[in-house]
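Example 3.
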Amino acid sequence: MSESTARDALDPLRALFAHDAAKVTAMFLAIWALFYAFGTVLGYGNNGLLALVRRVTFLAAVYGIVVLALNIQWGYAGLFNIGVAGFMAVGAYTVSMLSGSPTGVPPGLGLPLPIGILGGMLAATVVGLVAALPALRLKADYLAIVTVALSEIIRITYNTPAFANITGGASGFDNLPTSPANALLLSDPSSTISEPTAVGEAVFSLFAQFGIQRFTAINTVYTVGVLVVLLVVYLVLERAGKSPFGRVLKAVREDETAAQSLGKDTQNFKVRAFALGCGLMGLAGILWFAMGPRASVTPVTFRPNITFYIFIALIIGGAGSNTGSVLGGALFASLLFEAPPVVRNIVTDAFDVSADPSNLIEALVPVAGGDLVPLAGFLLNNIDTLRFIGMGVLLVVLVQRRPDGLLGARKETAAGVSLAANTRPDRSDAAGNGGGDGE
Amino acid sequence: MEANPAVERGLRAARRSPGAAVVWAVAAVLFLDLLAKLAGVSLGPFSTPWFALWFGGDVPLSQFAGFAWDGVVIGAVIGLASIGLSLTYSILNFANFAHGDYLTAGAFSGWAATYVIAGIGGLLALAETFVNALTGLGQSRAGDVDLVSLVLLRTPPLDAGANIWLSPLAIVVGLAVAVAVTAGVALALDRVVYRPMRDADGISLLIASIGVAFTLRYLVAFVFGNSRRIVTSTEQLPSLDVAGAVTSAVPFLAPARSSVVVDLHEVTLVVVAALLMFGLHVLLQRTKLGKAMRAMADNRALAQVTGIPTERVIRSTWLIGAGMTGAAGYLLVLSQGGLGFQTGWLLLLLIFAAVIMGGIGSIYGAIAGGLVIGLASRVSLVWLQGDLSSFARPTAFALMILILLFRPSGIFGGVKTA
């Protein structure tokens, strides 16, 4: 591989990245500023502020990874997979089984974490392949039904009491592997109050200057790690999208028959894209549920609902673009998922809404007498439910009005060269030649 | 060589589609195993490296009958609900993921009506209260009852008298309300959501229906609360132990080893479901609507050109489909008792399985598919005993995936009989 080919491949990438990186950075800065403002209004100290911002960042980052994975399948290859939850479950469960301590309950194999993570991704890939090989022949909506059924089969299998001594059954796999952040910062990773390592000493003393507790510091380090993984996944996928592999996928999405007639084995490409996406979903499941702050691997987590959240995020960002996926994931996680409860707290503090009607009718009856406080109190108390109603309405509106995504059409063209550039011979020239021929 | 032509044909078919052959072989083994179990014959154990495998065993006939009856009950509900899904799938050409939540909406609205009527003390009392309120005469009986907790289904079932024996009229009215409300909801949603995107592709409509599902499900949770509750009461409900009755009626039978209890709620469910299905059959055979639906499912543009009022047919489709679904939701609660805002959503995949099994677009196929799925999810408990019983649902899902892979046109060969 000569140096010039490497530069040729990287040049357009670098130009585009400079552009999109600015967008993503601006979005994250805006989210941080917004939640910093929320925290300040709520009167949080430095520790509380960082914890709030970190929570949003973590969620935005994991959503980013899993939305990127889905984008490979749906945005690039046009495969409508609504079994995301199942593949994340396979990743999270496998890593816990491989790297959980052998003495815990349920027992793990105690393998080193990197092997566990690789194993988890591999397991998700294999399950994806098993599903994909027969199912990808089907129509898009049949594939949707097969994948959602598969994810339920996976969830129920992890949930069943029959395998409780391996999977933990309905209460979940409690014996999680140690988080890499703990291993990095603490001499005894299983206890937060143990002696810090050399790195830990430096990190903790830095955070302590701002009055930030050790627990928050550890979680922040982990979240930064997840952000780095997001960046790596993004770069890899961006590179893959520009490669011949990615171009064939986009061609399949646009017109499968045309791609076939050009001699591409479209089935093969679809299977590979599906497997790659499933592997990354496994990775997202690992980072999200098996390690890190408030990690818990329980079957309830992997209900199909979470798949639909990820779809909403992808549709917000605009399917077909990696940058759009990251933006959509971050927007969904921050504004739609994390913000409503925080806003509720702010409103409750500011207006002293103490009314707490137990149901909608009790809340609505006083409205006739002009008293809006009970209704306000009821709406605030049910903001979680309202949030889901809002998501549903948003999804319908998006599909009706902005099918290309909230952030505009971001679908990347399949062509490797710019289609806007005029590569034809000069028009006046051609006309002149034509005229000349006619004479 | 005197090879049997049937065997030869079978072998050729097996070579052509080995997957289907394996499925048939497994089905045959399971069927023989079931017969052996019922006969009490057992072979084995055949030891495999991991576990001992038994062929046959001992399953009391009465236990099997109990599973089968449960399967018929749940299958009737699934069949009823899958009619609507099958119709919209073939005529509007998309998989409606909100269908389960239509069922929930029907169940909640119908039972709210039943609670109010039964709680006040029957239709007569309701009318009396109404007249009293209008004229200001007489003594109001509504004062005695907590109307709010009745409407929101928070009164204990027995206090409300939610039981077909105690207040049959309330149940009938509730069923009608469930049908009407669900049909109304479906029409309104069609007007707002689906009509503006009539020409969109199936996946866009599918995504829109996921949005509708979320909205509807959490609206129900918003109004009725998100706790699951027991709605019906079995107090004084007539029921019959069929196994016991049969063995005592036929003198030379040994007493049944387990009981098969059939109660009035279940019987009502099966009878009403059968009546509704028969009514639909008559409606579609005797009117032009069925023919118009078939034409639309085949080719909408052509149907429009031929002069079929497509929008009106679509509205009828929603009316019929959603009405049946609302009834299914109401009846499901009647027999099972429990109701929560996720009830329909949890049933959705089974309904999809029934639709796919019967072949998309076929009403009779959907009904049969519902029964097969219902039976499969219950009769599979013969093999999945103890801790394994939680695999009953996955069995139905796996059946659906197999059908999709090997026979996407449904087990009846894709005959469209709208």
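Chain B touches chain A through 50 residues (CB under 8 Å). Chain B has a mean pLDDT of 82.
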